[in-house]
Amino acid sequence: MMKIDPLKILTRSEIRLVIADLKRKRRSINTRQNLIIFRLATCCGLRVSEIVGLKMANVKLNSQRPHIDVPAAIAKRRKARKVPLWWDAATLADLDQWKQERTTQGAKVGSPFVCSQASGNNSRTGKPSFGKPLTDRNAQMRFKTTIRVLGPERVEMLSIHCGRHSFVSHALAGGRTLAEIRDAAGHANVSTTSVYLHVVHDDDETVGSLFEF
User: Fold this and answer.
1) Pairing of the two strands 59-60 and 67-70
2) Taking the model in full, what pTM does it have?
3) I want to staple 186 with a disulfide (CB 3.0 to 4.6 A). Which of 81, 95, 116, 170 is the partner?
4) What is the pLDDT of residues 69-78, one digit of tens each?
5) What share of the chain is helix, strand, coil (3-state, %, to 5)?
6) Taking the CB of residue 142, how many other CB atoms lie within 10 A of it?
7) How far apart are CA 45 and CA 77, in angstroms?
8) Cα–Cα distance, 58 to 21 (Å, whole number)
């Protein structure tokens, strides 16, 4: 059975610190996008391949139950799923603001939700870089950049996939059911989800919204 290392789960305080740090630096377009990558990994539980494969049309915000459609084409085991965005108002607000910004940039329904923000042409292809999908490696590096505020030891220890583990752990600690989280995370069965039970311990006072501590 899979075993979760509690040290590879971001604590409530760490999540709050990372988000606050990114919002203080939101003057940069890359920093604003890094916040979205952190949200998608840590507050939505997306895998890195799903983050870079996500299209504008997959982020459904104009409904009573806003959610992310993770299509079979980018999902593990080709198992499509829906990730609820109504669990956390702050995550929903940040994703909504980013989608509006991408629309202002000219993004269409089939455009990447996160993408290269670089101006000029790609040195290898000679084609414009802006708007091109990020690679898995680039998204992983961006995640490392977002968590620098936690110090070098945590940066070394935590990968973007640790964000997914953190999502499941905190969603369980916040009162969502095993079945809900199984479906949101795309786990094969509830037994996989149940491994995360009791991984998170309170290091703060109270929990309001799931990822707004």
Assistant:
1) antiparallel
2) 0.91
3) 81
4) 999 999 999 9
5) 50, 10, 40
6) 21
7) 16
8) 28
